[in-house]
Specification:
Elements: H1 2-5, E1 13-15, H2 24-39, E2 47-50, H3 52-61, H4 68-83, E3 96-102, E4 112-116, H5 122-130, H6 133-150, H7 156-170, H8 180-198, H9 206-220, H10 224-233, E5 241-247, E6 258-265, E7 272-280, H11 284-289, E8 295-296, H12 300-303, H13 305-322, E9 326-333, E10 336-344, H14 349-361, H15 367-372, H16 376-383, E11 386-387, E12 394-398, E13 400-403, E14 406-412, H17 415-423, E15 428-432, H18 440-445, E16 448-451, H19 459-467, E17 470-473, E18 479-481, E19 486-488, E20 494-496, E21 500-504, E22 509-512, E23 517-518, H20 521-526, H21 536-554, E24 558-562, H22 566-574, E25 580-584, H23 594-602, H24 606-630, E26 635-639, H25 652-664, H26 670-682, H27 694-699, H28 703-720, E27 726-731, H29 737-758, E28 765-770, H30 773-777, H31 779-782, E29 788-791, H32 793-801, H33 805-818, H34 832-849, E30 854-857, H35 865-873, E31 878-881, H36 886-897
Parallel strand pairs: 14-15, 15-16, 16-17, 24-25, 24-31, 25-26, 26-27, 27-28, 28-29, 29-30, 30-31
Antiparallel strand pairs: 1-2, 2-5, 3-4, 3-5, 6-7, 6-9, 7-8, 9-10, 11-23, 12-22, 13-17, 14-21, 18-19, 19-20, 21-22
Length: 906
Amino acid sequence: MSENREPHVAKFVYDFTEGNKDLKDLLGGKGANLAEMTNLGLPVPPGFTITTEACKVYLDSGEEPAALRDEVSAHLDALEQRMGKKLGQADDPLLVSVRSGAKFSMPGMMDTVLNIGLSDASVQGLAQQAGDERFAWDSYRRLIQMFGKTVLGVDGDLFEEALEKAKETKGVAVDTELAAADLKKLVTTFKKIVKKEAGRDFPQDPREQMDLAIKAVFDSWNGDRAKLYRRQERIPHDLGTAVNVCSMVFGNLGPDSGTGVAFTRDPASGHQGVYGDYLQNAQGEDVVAGIRNTVPLAELEQIDKKSYDQLMQIMETLENHYKDLCDIEFTIERGRLWMLQTRVGKRTAGAAFRIATQLVDQGLIDETEALQRVTGAQLAQLMFPRFDETAKAGQVARGIAASPGAAVGKAVFDSYTAVKWSRSGEKVILVRRETNPDDLDGMIAAEGILTSRGGKTSHAAVVARGMGKTCVCGAEELEVDTKRRRMTVPGGHVVEEGDVISIDGSSGKVYLGEVPVVPSPVVEYFEGRMHPGADDADELVEAVHRMMAFADRKRRLRVRANADNAEDALRARRFGAQGIGLCRTEHMFLGDRRELVERLILADTEAEREASLKALLPLQKKDFVELFEAMDGLPVTIRLLDPPLHEFLPDITELSVRVALAESRQEPHENELRLLQAVHRLHEQNPMLGLRGVRLGLVIPGLFTMQVRAIAEAAAERKAAKGDPRAEIMIPLVGTVQELEIVRDEADQVVADVEAATGTSLKLAIGTMIELPRAALTAGQIAEAAEFFSFGTNDLTQTVWGFSRDDVEASFFTAYLEKGIFGVSPFETIDKDGVGSLVKAAAEAGRRTRPDLKLGVCGEHGGDPESVHFFHEVGLDYVSCSPFRIPVARLEAGRAATQSTGSDHR
């Protein structure tokens, strides 16, 4: 609260000569950089900054700090003495701008008011001072318009409509063609709008104008658009904004004046050159508003060579000083250049990588700093194919952007058709209401997956990301009818099976017809199909290659892959995986083997059970031999069967209908009836918390021992072939050490039997997943029986929060994000305070028991950039993620190891 905050603050206002670029927390980005440019001796209009602390006091209490008015008055007096004129004086007025400036750039999200100090009395003095009556009245109408909208809450369209009417009356196209008399009339009209809409006159007291504008900027921190922007950019809500009061310089004084923006490098490509825009006879908002066409910055050389040469010199000074791409705002007032703002410029993902390596080559930064200039999110953008933005496309729906990329294909509505058509050379998009494990073959065959239900962590989304497959989920506008093999889009148009559609997994957009796709050279590089070269694409590849090499040299965390077959394992290895952190064996039991699993579950006798296990053993062994061969010399962590039993059994409703029909027709149905009875017997209200994981291995005799035997025999076979298999066996869903001890004893006996039978020494590490709160809380005990922990953060998040991952994103997560309860979904980025604290505590407790305990994570968070930093901080040994996220994890692991609190390139 304000009464606690105020006494600790020495001052609330800083002159531009007092600050520097490192005071962004206090002065905001704009104020800190204005101070820095002032310190560098660059031409900055004099002014002062009201700190973020003053804003926080105001937002906490609803009142400005008691000391603020006196401090502002003192700095205003000093500014007036320096400028030789007083704010709003009649004969020669000092005018100021009041501009927002938070720590992080929030372009257009908060408020600015220019030309403060103009009034009915001072407008004539400004006209005399400038020798330009039109300029003075133009400045006055701008003030009333901005002040009315920003400070008094008047609908901005009313001013725009009045301006358009004035141009129509005059018969002109642009506002620069309005004469002084026209603008004088417009001022009268604008003041009437203010009086009617705000219920008060436009204030004539210049100090009142300034004070009200300062409050308006404070208030804009909590405006709807600012809050929404902060949520999207994940900027903390408690930072507050600084306010910059700056003496006005005017770009609208005629053809020898103007305003512009400049970049020290191209923010789109990163290339060096002259980039920016300039607009003659204009103020800054004219450039942003786009009311007149700008000219390329290079043309300023012909318009005003002196100012151009000075600007080029200043740009070089700023880039060398900030050691980065700088974004600059400037104004030329009658041939004199003024710098209004600079900041580290935003850039595209490709530009970020190019610029980082260029600056290393120029000796401006080292490799450690270069890693802070790029992010895993930027790398992910570069890896996925994308639609050609210049193409015309008809968007028909929008869902959740679940897995990035661009996919085009014929719509199909079941997995069988997807596989069949794909084998015939057709590109298909699998369209479902929602997917389940039965759809795996179709998902693999498809170019992309589209569902009308589900969120970013639904089955479709998780599996698609694991495969690097484009996916759009939760497109609720679509009516998917799988039986009739069609979907209806908004407007009533029906997409039949075989019709071409396009989906954008980066935006969630769904299109009818084919949208051209642009491939990613970065993926081709990771796949080994592209090498650094000379053209633009290869230049980007070279930059990515170098940054990845930096990261790999710096990082401590190893990066493994979540991979369930040899093909994924080989891809992961090409992408830089240092082993497999999670092989989900349940995916091996689908398809042709499903019937064998069904028989195992339904077995009434030990003989039937043994027969099923005997049939499954060689199939499992073959899986593991292929996996060990693909990952030869690297660790492979195999999770024993985990999913609930219902995933291997027929749908209870469909089966009931089949039995009922057979009975009504008096047809034989003994097998279906037996199956239905078993399904009823095994039915669970909440199967994700039921008979699965280690519980399954304890209840179905021989299931886990069959899998362990397959692993051991596969390892022995690879060793006999001079291979180097490094298998690790992971027991899922353990909640107590006793469960792990029982399974471990059985596993150790099986491994010993295989060693004796093959004459091979096998070193198979046995560990567990920590995915239940109780396991995390008793990790010290569990470590007595485990050689490694792998944190299953997907299920740990579900059980800590009490969320059903497949349901909550679609039902209420949007509301939680909008209300600020979440900054981001806890299934996307680790919840450090809750789930993260359990991970940290379990890691520490486990290593107290077993100092050499290996620690990893294999949930979706393993490939999330922010989460990777957390796992580095808590001392894990590795993260494991889907193959296509491996480069992202490698890069972020390098960044985590070299994290510098001084770097910030939002």
